[in-house]
Design goal:
By secondary structure, the chain is mainly alpha-helical. The chain has helices at 5-41, 44-63, 69-86. Helix 1 runs antiparallel to helix 2 (44-63) and helix 1 runs parallel beside helix 3. The N and C termini lie far apart (57 Å).
Length: 87
């Protein structure tokens, strides 16, 4: 446990940031998994909706610095490719 006032504050703020980052990261992963599940089931309509949501979540993670831009591009490319393979 820190003794210095600024270190205590840093600890509190890092916990808040960690929680926020975990939320964004897990929602991105969940959106991708939901999309992949719909693709495997063969539901074009649901997959299309989930594709848009997954891309939004990936962009949000990228803009907040949780995911590198190249990783975001790779993820979006993969899920878009999966969607086009359905058609």
């Amino acid at each position: 446990m820190p003794n210095i006032k600024s270190a205590k504050k840093r600890m509190r703020s890092s916990v808040k940031k960690t929680n926020a980052n975990t939320l964004v990261n897990s929602s991105m992963r969940t959106a991708i998994k939901k999309f992949e599940k719909e693709v495997k089931a063969g539901n074009k309509e649901a997959a299309s909706n989930n594709l848009n949501i997954a891309i939004q979540r990936i962009d949000k993670a990228m803009s907040s610095g949780l995911v590198h831009k190249n990783k975001a591009a790779r993820l979006k490319s993969r899920i878009t490719k999966m969607m086009s393979a359905m058609n």
